[in-house]
Amino acid sequence: MATPMKFLIVDDFSTMRRIVRNLLKEIGHTDADEAEDGVIALDKLRNGNFQFVVSDINMPNMNGFQLLAEIKKDESLKHLPVLMVTAEARKEDIIQAAQGGAAGYIVKPFTKATLEDKLNNIFKKMGL
Amino acid sequence: MEQHPTTPPGHASDQMFQQLGAITRQLHDALKELGYADKLKGTVEQLPDAQSRLSYIARLTGEAADKVLNHVDGAKTEQSRIVQKGRQLNDTIARVPGLAKAMPELLEWSQDVVHQAEQTDARLTEIMLAQDFHDLTGQVINRVVQLAATIEEQLLALLLQSAPTGTPGQDKAYDPHTLEGPVVSPEGRSDVVTGQQDVDDLLASLGF
Question: Using CA atoms, how far apart are residues A125 and B101, in angstroms rounded to an integer?
Fold first, then answer.
């Protein structure tokens, strides 16, 4: 049984938000909200009780790297694990995400097993 | 040691921009003389059309993906109901004294129904995941549309200006170092990963 958590899914493509939301539901995480860019995500994170962020990188207004940086410099949010799920496949982007404090990095296209595996790794590190 | 005359800061770049301006003027004159200006004008005029066609593809593929996801949602709900009913049937057969023994095929069939429904549900998950093509192709299309807009802008400037004017460096050039989205041709590139295993290996090698 998955630990109940409130997820925020951040992606500018509604199709991808829906896919991630459905996959989370299948894995056992039914409590999720969506944001279409970093600005909206940050506003939702500051006003909602979220425990996990799944974010794209390439988005308008505020991209995933900027969102990650904003989360990590905010005292009330910096504890949140951020899993990057993105089509950005450059090694420098992966390293930048890791150095910026991302809890994991999934490159699109991905499978349900990959998402489940990465979530479990993060939960394990969190002691859940 | 021999002293070289020092070039004042900015002088070299001023010279470069002057040369670029001269080349642009020559190119413009040559296009005019050779009669290519009209062809170039035609190309420029076609660019907005190409952009709107690409946007049309992005919109239609998005709608198609949404339609598929709606059907997958509906089918998954139905499959889940079949699994639930199949399990209830298994329990009922097991509860009726002697039935499972007298007609073992009944239990076998109801177990098959549950198994098949679960397999269909897994296939539906794969169909759902395959809709990520909309995100991946959409990102590529957006990038091509942006590139076309930049080319259009620059070609227009070339066509409309008889002499290069403006401040050097003011043009919004296409920046190859921005986020590049999905890698369309990873062959021969060492700066990108080609799958999740590469991501995991890279992060592990760095101690993450």
Answer: 50
